[in-house]
Amino acid sequence: MPVMTYRDALRSAMAEEMERDETVVLMGEDIGIYGGTHLVTNGLIDQFGPRRVIDTPIAEGGFTGAAIGMAMAGLKPIVEMMTWNFSFLAADQIIQNAAKLRYFSGGQVNVPLVIRGPNGGGVQLSAQHTHSLEGFYGHFPGLKVVSPATPADVKGMMLHAIRDPDPVIFLEAGALYGTKGEVPEGDDEVEFGKARIAREGKDVTLISYGRQVPMLLKVADQLAEQDIDAEVVDLRSIRPFDAATIVESVRKTHRAVVVQEQWRLFSVASEVCAVIQEQAFDDLDAPVERVSGAEVPAPYARNLEVAAFPSVEQVVSAARRVLYLEA
Amino acid sequence: MAEVIMPKMGDAMEEGTLLKWLKAVGDEVSEGDALAEIETDKVTLELEAQEDGFLTNTLVDEGAVVPIGEPVATIGAQDEIGKGAPAKKAPAAAETAVEEVEKAAEANAPTEQPMAAPSAAEKAEAQVVDRKPGERVRASPLVKRLAEEHGIDLSQVAGTGPGGRIINADIQPYVSGEKQAPQPTAAAQPAVAPTTTPSTGTPKGEKVDMPKIKRTTGKRMTESKLGIPHYYVTASIDMGASLDFRKQINASLEETGIRVSVNDLIVKAAALALRDHPNVNRTFVDGELYQQDAIDVNIAIAMDGGLIAPFVPAADEKSLGSIAKMTKDLGKRAREGGLTPEEYQGGTFTISNLGMFDVDEFIAVINPPQVAILAIGSVVETPVVKNGEIAVGHLMKVTLSADHRALDGAEVATFLQSVRKYLENPMLLAIG
């Protein structure tokens, strides 16, 4: 299998699908001539021309609304949010229109729209440019929300997202754009609602998605040195939510640690904990632990930013606590 | 590594509570250093190190009740800190073969015995703790499920999790069968705290060896008496007709060598009364009543050092002759220790008879999961009034102890009327 970066895998999914399906168009700020602020769309304007790779004004509400209309009319737009932080300006369009049009129209109209961009922090962009919005968007029925962690998944899930008949919130792990991994050749779609076992283990289940997944693999390696066999579950898909894989893993290990960069309250980790106690209560040997971002706006200073996000050490300690070992 | 054990600080001491660790794992210790605070029945004192070295492991948590002689910590070299904590002691039961007779007591211990605190040895084998009656058992959901699936009594399992929570690691030795599991008590009653040491001024006396059967009988009877709402109904039965009847039968059976005892008549009478009153022929388990179809009547038999109660299966269907043959054989083999478990594990109603010892009456402790036990006094010649005239009656007082969760007073009273009917009209015993 070819090895490519997360960024290139993402681009190749869009380019391949644009080759196959001429209704697929790209929209966003500086995605054409400039090649995209994060170079995700680099070169695509040369390949597909300005009618399909559309540079927009700096007006998220406007171009997102336009894309919703284009989707209703039969196109399959992929809208880039330069970062997901700017989607707050488009939230009214996303939540009030994209998520609800199929419902309002009794299924007569659907919105095959993908909105994509980097999510989360870790690259010193400070408070206004550092948000993890999976819990926020995961809250709304009518949206599908995914957060892939590997080059293979980002490609396969983008293929699925473009083909999905409903609006998809595609949360890329911005900090992982340069990471490399094997990516299957060809049309290898990854369906939504299926978590991935990133590492098998029997002693404790570590659950996350997106940027935290590579960190959990490091945690698992450290735990292995302490004779603790950790299983790592990569949720991949936030909505639809794969409760079955989580429950199956916890039934095996009897304990879990949920890790997320976002804030702790009303978060994806809260939902994972709820599902575990609902469906695996009798299999739990310890309360489920959450490791989350600090309850502050994200700091700019590097040392503070690092301190505000979950670390390998914190997760190792949490894993030891649920095993009743000294943390 | 050297073990630090719970010391015996007095003759009556069987266990001590580890109140507080004064040293932590990894601390350097010298002979005479205080390692922990321990509490006996009477005093709080310090547990001292017996050698120099490092505290390499602590084996019990603060608050744990530890039988004397059991290790609580280890002292060793610096590089042994935290390593090679000796496995918790293998259960004593796994080392000593459990004798049939002990199992007998476990399975079917009848009647009244003074309670026995569980011995130190018993505690060690089960890693048990004494929780106060009614004290909530903290256990993880997984542990609760496993305990139910494997029939493990969590009230006796020590928890090493936060706040004494019982966690998977605490219960795994029982689940895997590595250790013998503490069984739930029949009536699911809280474990009973040992009786307290007599207050000062009580003569000390020499400790008497208690056979295990006595300890287990005592434990079961304590659980029964504390856990079951007993009440008692006494009736006098005129045994005159039964005694005559017995004489006749035994005269006619002389050639066969079979002799029917008064107790055999009572067994048959009780069995027929149970057939008339199936509500007494029930068991009570985990808050539920179960109807028993077979009428299997246990008879309490005193042996050297303990009691056992084998049963006569389907006693209502057996003739007096076969009941007599069977009880004689059971009694003989019980005293020789030759009963098989099938003969004493089970039964639906128990009769305890002290009539041969010239007692007027007594009350017995229910043999769980049964709901009633009949205590038989001696037959006493007594003036009775019959048809307006005083005559000599042969009165026998019987007392039924009943579980009020299963039976009400009127139910017990009508059952006793039925027993009386059979014993005062013994021809019914021959044809029933």
Give structural notes.
The complex is a heterodimer of chains A (327) and B (432). Chain A has 327 residues and is of the alpha/beta class. Chain A has helices at 6-20, 44-48, 60-72, 91-98, 101-104, 134-138, 151-163, 212-225, 243-253, 268-279, 302-308, 312-322, and strands at residues 3-5, 24-28, 53-55, 76-80, 114-119, 144-146, 168-173, 180-182, 196-199, 204-208, 230-234, 237-239, 256-263, 289-293. Chain A has a seven-stranded mixed β-sheet with strand order 3-2-4-5-7-6-12, with helices on both faces. The longest helix of chain A is centred in the N-terminal third of the chain and has 15 residues, at 6-20. Chain A is globular. Chain B has 432 residues and is of the alpha+beta class. Chain B folds into three domains: 2-80, RNA polymerase II/Efflux pump adaptor protein, barrel-sandwich hybrid domain (OB fold (Dihydrolipoamide Acetyltransferase, E2P)), CATH 2.40.50.100; 106-188, no CATH class; 213-431, 2-Layer Sandwich (Chloramphenicol Acetyltransferase), CATH 3.30.559.10. Chain B contains twelve helices and 18 strands. The longest helix of chain B has 17 residues, at 320-336. Mean pLDDT of chain B is 82; it is low at 86-126 and 186-198.
